[in-house]
């Protein structure tokens, strides 16, 4: 209502009015972000041909400090075409689900076509539109378009674009599209780039990268068949039925940088709420057929995650969170984050001990902080959103579901989230630094392993250096300092140094910017009798015979890390030795009336980044119990296999 | 017939123990490459505790990714031993069926003589079986495709699941029926000394078709016992055996294997007895083969048969 009033009072100039409305916060509250953009979109879904027709009014406030004449726009849906950069990368490196990397199918085709673009005061500029390929100069890639205005927009002035566009949705690829009558409409409208570090930042759509946009407001109307249930990244402002059997829902969202929505006649809306410091947060879970029994797991996870994030990192300022549960066959739409709307992943049967639903939900919710509010550049520094989010995921999952078993706990077989993060890093430990642009990794698995797994493992290891409480404090400070802005990796690392009061460049240079592998090993342990040279020495007697004990620790990898070694003796004595790790090896020697029983590098298991945990310790005596256990399992499996083969006779 | 089959298996229990022993030895051989591979990594490492005191999947996956432990040797050995086991079963099945058919003690040389007598016939029967198995494979792929098609077109997972589950049940039924058919072909080949596999398959097909209900019920009951016992064993293992209970783990897993061997022999024995009770009178009994001399139900103690190294 206030929105309309402001429009009418704004000197009768519609464009200015829209901008004013968009830039004005609700009564009693002030904007949380610097609102650069204000989008008004009126969209109609056409289920028959899987298209969306829409008009978009974008008011852009030029806060770049200089006149701007050229404006780039993302046209992400054009990625879903055979010769796009995205598809080229997908063919090379694969994608999630059974996607177009398996072969081109016309159902994977998607497009966004700007049918007209006009600028208030400058007329129709549709003919001025030009595709551009800032990343790879692939002329067939149409995911970025730019328009040059007849005259520049002055600093602090507004410019209003009026765009008519048409989306052809693909069957879900990379989180966007349809599956039967389920629609996940993401990255669906022409979105202006970000003026960042003195230039336009508007990358093409890549298979491994995500998104980057300015904060602002969204006022979006969606028209869908009347029997459809919708969810969107905004508060539902109004809803009205149309004579043609459709209905129009109007959503409004502020201090966000993207807007997505979903629709399906098959959804069941499960509602709940959570009381946070900023007020009540409404939880909408849109579940698909056959998945309703998983609803409580989703809800419990969202509530638990909200609680932990508020306690550890900061207040969740929005009044809503919508979780979309894609239907069977539509899981390619699952596991995606948009401001105040996330997509989960479940199935008709997911055992309680397999925390898949919780892992995905927690992760995507975490992006409300690390992407949604702390809006880093996902194209260029993906580790700042996916990586930090994977780290907080490990922390929250452990807190909610138990350390050591927060990912899988089935029939005695367990693994926690931190364990899965480290595993994904092990296979690609030395391929790329965290700081590579998302689309410049050696492979998509390296992107995943490094960006998600290594970052989480680097930060878990950092906890061991500065302490868990300090690390949590640093994360909280980082969130408070940079929420609703676009911080960089330097900002993040500097915050940690500020809070911890330590110069951590030695660690960051290797772990963040470098590709050195961390691997320490106990090379040898031995206990020689001190009287080895005596002929016919007395028989060895525990506690009386003197030994020269030696422990040799070796730095196998190039990553230099100060470490601690615990040496145990057979008289129960334990010694801890510290080593700066600069040399390649260190030898510890003792003369004692005791033999060395074992030596272990990193006895407190703080250095998660160590590539090989098995060589971190060595015992004097062999213990083959684990080997025997695995042998029994293997023996059983092979015998069972033999019986199955013998069924042929 | 199932009860009589059980009695026969029990009377000729040496077959059971020997077969289990063969399985155990082959399992042991299969485990050795794994032990040789992982032992250097685990036996002197404290990290191994995560596998012994529980089963930490991160540690296990780390072990599999460890350059020292990630060799294909255990898999290769298991595959080859599987092939050897199959060949061994082709060889032994003829002897086993002869023992059940005649229900008497066989000397080792006599047993292996019978094994060799049927080996190539059973190889041919296996080839026939593989050809017939194309049918359930087609049914499976059809139901899988239909299930996927439904899952792709209908929002509810139920129709796809019903088709998938139904298809699996049908395939399972077909597999059991085919196995039963070929079991009867093998029994027929031994009982009638049928050399022509094609005739054995055809004759067994007619016999099985005419008596399908009773034969299938006989076969299914014993199969069900094997499945139920396996599920029970796995449940007990997961529920009641602590991670460190290696002996109990070994005993339970071996009990499951023993149950599989036992129930398979039970099926064989029941089928043999059923055949003896129901088989049509053969038109011609070859003179070259007439060794069948059923033992009396109750025998007086008499002189022992000539000693043999191992008797079966």
Can you put this structure into words, describing what you see?
The complex is a heterodimer of chains A (649) and B (312). Chain A has 649 residues and is α+β, with helices and mostly antiparallel strands. Chain A is 26% helix and 30% strand. Chain A has 4 domains: 24-260, Immunoglobulin-like, CATH 2.60.40.1730; 266-366, Zincin-like (2-Layer Sandwich), CATH 3.30.2010.30; 390-511, Neutral Protease Domain 2 (Neutral Protease, domain 2); 520-627, Immunoglobulin-like (Sandwich), CATH 2.60.40. Chain A has an 8-stranded mixed sheet. In chain A, strands 19-20-21-23-22 form a 5-stranded mixed sheet, covered by helices on one side. In chain A, strands 6-7-3-11 form a 4-stranded antiparallel sheet, with no helix packed on it. In chain A, a hairpin with a 3-residue loop joins strand 4 (111-119) and strand 5 (123-124). Chain B is an all-alpha fold and 312 residues long. In chain B, helix 7 (134-153) packs antiparallel against helix 8 (157-191) and helix 10 (212-240) runs antiparallel to helix 11. Chain B is globular. The relative contact order of chain B is 0.13. Classes of the chains: A alpha+beta (649), B mainly alpha (312). Strand 25 of chain A pairs parallel with strand 1 of chain B, so a sheet runs across the interface.
Short description:
The complex is a heterodimer of chains A (649) and B (312). Chain A is α+β, with helices and mostly antiparallel strands and 649 residues long. Chain A contains 13 helices and 32 strands.
Properties at a glance:
heterodimer, A: 649 residues, alpha+beta, Immunoglobulin-like, Zincin-like, Neutral Protease, domain 2, 8-stranded mixed beta sheet, 5-stranded mixed beta sheet, elongated, disordered N terminus, B: 312 residues, mainly alpha, 77% helix, globular, disordered C terminus
């Amino acid at each position: 209502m206030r929105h309309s009033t402001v429009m009418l009072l704004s000197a009768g100039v519609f464009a200015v009015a829209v901008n004013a409305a968009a830039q004005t916060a609700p009564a009693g509250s002030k904007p949380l972000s610097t609102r650069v953009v204000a989008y008004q979109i009126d969209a109609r879904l056409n289920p028959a041909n899987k298209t969306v027709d829409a008009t978009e009014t974008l008011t852009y406030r030029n806060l770049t400090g200089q006149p701007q004449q050229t404006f780039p726009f993302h046209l992400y849906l054009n990625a879903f075409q055979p010769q796009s950069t995205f598809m080229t990368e997908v063919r090379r490196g694969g994608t999630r689900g059974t996607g177009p990397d398996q072969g081109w199918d016309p159902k994977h085709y998607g497009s966004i076509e700007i049918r007209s673009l006009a600028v208030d005061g400058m007329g129709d500029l549709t003919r001025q539109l030009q595709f551009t390929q800032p990343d790879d100069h692939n002329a067939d890639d149409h995911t970025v378009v730019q328009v040059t205005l007849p005259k520049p927009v002055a600093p602090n002035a507004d410019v209003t674009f009026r765009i008519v566009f048409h989306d052809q949705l693909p069957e879900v690829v990379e989180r966007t599209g349809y599956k039967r009558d389920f629609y996940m409409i993401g990255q669906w409208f022409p979105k202006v780039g970000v003026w960042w570090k003195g230039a336009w930042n508007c990358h093409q759509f890549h298979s491994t990268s995500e998104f980057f946009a300015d904060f602002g407001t969204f006022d979006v109307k969606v028209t869908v068949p009347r029997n459809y249930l919708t969810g969107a990244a905004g508060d539902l402002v109004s809803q009205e039925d149309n004579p043609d059997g459709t209905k129009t829902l109007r959503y409004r969202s502020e201090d966000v940088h993207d807007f997505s929505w979903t629709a399906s006649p098959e959804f069941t809306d499960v509602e709940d709420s959570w009381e946070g410091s900023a007020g009540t947060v409404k939880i909408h879970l849109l579940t698909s057929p056959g998945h309703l029994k998983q609803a409580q797991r989703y809800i419990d996870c969202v509530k638990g995650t909200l609680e932990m994030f508020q306690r550890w990192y900061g207040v969740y300022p929005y009044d809503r969170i919508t979780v979309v549960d894609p239907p069977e066959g539509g899981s390619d739409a699952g596991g995606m984050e948009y401001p105040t709307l996330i997509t989960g992943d479940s199935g008709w049967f997911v055992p309680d001990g397999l925390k898949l639903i919780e892992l995905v939900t927690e992760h995507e919710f975490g992006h409300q902080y690390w992407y949604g509010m702390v809006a880093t550049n996902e194209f260029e520094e993906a580790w700042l959103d996916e990586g930090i989010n994977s780290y907080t995921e490990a922390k929250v999952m452990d807190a909610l579901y138990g350390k050591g078993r927060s990912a899988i706990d089935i029939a005695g077989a367990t693994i926690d989230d931190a364990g899965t993060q480290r595993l994904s890093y092990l296979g690609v430990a030395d391929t790329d630094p965290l700081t590579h642009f998302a689309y410049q990794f050696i492979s998509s698995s390296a992107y995943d392993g490094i960006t998600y797994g290594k970052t989480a493992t680097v930060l878990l290891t950092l906890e061991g250096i500065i302490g868990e409480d300090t690390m949590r404090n640093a994360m909280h400070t980082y969130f408070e300092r940079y929420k609703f802005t676009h911080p960089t990796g330097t900002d993040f690392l500097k915050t940690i140094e500020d809070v911890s009061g330590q110069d951590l460049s030695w660690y960051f240079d290797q772990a963040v910017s470098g590709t050195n592998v961390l691997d320490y090993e106990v090379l040898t342990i031995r206990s020689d009798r001190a009287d080895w040279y005596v002929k016919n020495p007395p028989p060895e007697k525990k506690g009386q015979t003197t030994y020269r004990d030696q422990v040799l620790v070796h730095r196998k990898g190039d990553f230099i890390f100060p470490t601690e070694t615990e040496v145990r003796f057979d008289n129960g004595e334990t010694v801890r030795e510290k080593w700066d790790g600069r040399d390649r090896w260190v030898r510890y020697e003792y003369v004692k009336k005791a033999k060395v029983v074992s030596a272990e590098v990193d006895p407190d298991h703080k250095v998660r980044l160590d590539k090989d945990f098995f060589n971190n310790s060595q015992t004097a005596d062999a213990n083959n119990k684990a080997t025997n256990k695995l042998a029994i399992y293997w023996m059983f499996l092979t015998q069972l296999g033999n019986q199955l083969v013998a069924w042929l006779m | 017939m199932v009860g009589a089959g059980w009695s026969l298996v029990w009377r000729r229990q040496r077959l059971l123990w020997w077969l289990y022993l063969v399985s155990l030895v082959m399992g042991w051989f299969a485990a050795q490459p794994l032990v040789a591979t992982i032992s250097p990594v685990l036996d002197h490492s404290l990290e191994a505790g995560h596998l012994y005191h529980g089963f930490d999947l991160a540690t296990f996956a780390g072990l599999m990714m460890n350059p020292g432990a990630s060799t294909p040797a255990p898999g290769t050995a298991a595959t080859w031993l599987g092939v050897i086991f199959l060949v061994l079963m082709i060889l032994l099945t003829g002897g086993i069926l002869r023992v059940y058919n005649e229900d008497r003690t066989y000397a080792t040389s006599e047993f292996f003589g019978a094994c060799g007598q049927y080996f190539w016939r059973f190889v041919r029967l296996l080839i026939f079986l593989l050809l017939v198995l194309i049918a359930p494979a087609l049914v499976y792929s059809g139901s899988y495709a239909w299930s996927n098609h439904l899952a792709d077109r209908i929002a509810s997972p139920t129709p796809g699941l019903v088709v998938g589950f139904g298809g699996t049940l049908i395939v399972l039924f077909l597999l059991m029926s085919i196995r039963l058919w070929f079991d009867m072909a093998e029994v027929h080949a031994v009982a009638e000394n049928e050399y022509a596999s094609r005739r054995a398959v055809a004759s067994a097909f007619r016999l099985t078709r005419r008596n399908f209900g009773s034969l299938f019920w006989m076969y299914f009951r014993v199969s069900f016992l094997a499945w139920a016992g396996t599920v029970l064993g796995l449940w007990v293992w997961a529920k009641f055996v602590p991670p460190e209970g290696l002996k109990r783990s070994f005993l339970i897993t071996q009990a499951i294997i023993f149950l599989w061997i036992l129930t398979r022999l039970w099926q064989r024995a029941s089928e043999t007895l059923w055949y003896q009770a129901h088989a049509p009178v053969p038109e011609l009994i070859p003179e070259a083969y007439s060794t069948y001399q059923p033992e009396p139900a109750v025998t007086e103690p008499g002189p022992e048969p000539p000693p043999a190294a191992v008797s079966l």
